[in-house]
Amino acid sequence: MKFLIDNWMLILVAVSSGGMLLWPMLSGGMQAGGLDANTAVQRINREKAVVVDVCDAAEFSAGHISGAKNVPLGELEAKLPLTVKNKALPLILVCASGARSGRAVAIAKKLGYEQAQSLNGGLKAWKQANLPTEKA
Q: What integer pLDDT is reported at residue 33 of this predicted model?
């Protein structure tokens, strides 16, 4: 007990630094259930996953993952069933940074796409991994 009282400041620093290391994971900075770029490539190649870009048309035409289908987030609920008819296929949802695609996963799962996942970091992470993109 004397040790704790004598070294309370060191203990406080240790606990707060540990909290700062855990904060991104606890606050959702690392999206639960999301994919990194390399895992996404494996799912595309091995499981025939469908890539759906939820950016608006202007962002999509400026650059997107090769072979991705564009369904803007605002139209996702209406157009996703028409774009991807097979709900059993894995679905990879992408946006510029990963924020919108996280919301899109919830919509896709509500529509019955149980294998829907978001690309962590979005198109930015895809480009940082030096993976191919194309412009419309």
A: 62
* Cβ-proximal residues to 63 (8 Å cutoff; 6+ apart), any chain: 123, 133, 134, 135
Q: Distances in Å between the alpha carbon of 72 and those of 5, 6, 7, 102?
A: 57, 58, 55, 13
* pLDDT the model gives residue 71: 96
Report residue 101's pLDDT band, with 50, 70 and 90 as the boundaries: very high
- Determine whether 55 is an active site residue: no
Query: What CA–CA distances, in Å, run from 42 to 17, 114, 127?
Result: 35, 18, 16
Residues in CB range of 122: below 8 A, 6 or more apart: 94, 95, 96, 97, 98, 99, 101
Alpha helices in 35-128 (DSSP H): 37-47, 57-62, 76-83, 99-110, 122-128
Per-residue pLDDT, 25: 60
Strands 50-53 and 64-65: unpaired
Q: Which residue in the list 50, 71, 95, 123 is annotated as catalytic?
A: 95
Query: Does residue 61 have a pLDDT over 90?
Result: yes
